[in-house]
Amino acid sequence: MRKLAPDFAAHLASGATTLCTCWRLARTDGIVLGFTDHDAALAFAGTDYLPASGGDGSEQAQKLGGATDTSELVALITSTAITDQDIRLGRYGGAIVETFRVNWRDVAQRHLMRRDRIGEIVLEDKAFRAELRSAQAALNCKQGRIYQALCGTSLGSAACGIALDNPAYRASGSVLGIAGTSRLRVAGLSGFDAGWFAFGRLAWSSGIKHGLIDTIAAHGRDANGDWLELDGEVGDWVAPGDGFVATAGCDRLFSTCRERFGNTVNFRGFPHVPGSDFVLTYPKQGEALDGAPLIK
Fold first, then answer.
1. What are the chain's domains?
2. CA 26, CA 34: separation in Å to the nearest integer?
3. Which letter, b or e, does each residue of 41-68 get, where b requires 16 or more Cβ atoms within 10 Å of its Cβ?
4. Is-above-0.85 flag for pTM?
5. Which helix or strand (DSSP H or E) is residue 15 part of?
6. pLDDT tens digits along 174-231
């Protein structure tokens, strides 16, 4: 059962309520936006809630057990609040949405109904529809480790132990040109081996994508210099001169961990466990079947 503040509970018990819903949306980059279904602007706790944004929410159901609670937030795309470009760039992915029931005559009388994280976002004719996932959604994710040859952690994590702020693993550069739907010609990486930044990250330091991070699918070098292949389309959001910081990547192979990073003591995989191909093998005439170890 919800525990309500006495003044808010008294307002509900009065029989003549003046309630509205407010949504506080906090993006991962620190930008905070407020929406309300009331017909006038409201403000509390340092956030302005604007009706012009056209916020609307679906029915919210609280479930017991392991079922995941989800609801929806629908808002108009406006030039002053939420833009189509920001949505397509992923600036709202993972944003926290707090839903309040508020007495619009006295905003001090309010109650936080739920706190969710934005999941899938769908654009629908000048509006966006965002799925709100409750904290229970994290419980539905697979946990633990599995037996596999690849490392089970990411480069630079606490389990890995590699410090990515080391100059040997990062470099600042800039875009020279667009070489394809997902390929960039870049400057600033000539001091590193080709392929050094494959599977790494590209943090944009200027331009339209400033503050966003892309995954580097491949890093190569030819007669024209260095190029980076991203895991998504470049689109119209990257232009020559845009700056970035590239961080080295890892393909999670044991050989890479040993030869490139010298970090096998922290390798989180099982490279010596026979795979399915070994299970399907059979003895052949002439093979040395002396029981010697396969891995030395």
1. 6-138 (2.40.10), 167-247 (2.40.30)
2. 9
3. ebebeebebbeebbbbbeebeeeeeeee
4. no
5. none
6. 999 999 899 999 999 999 999 999 999 999 999 999 999 999 999 999 999 999 999 9
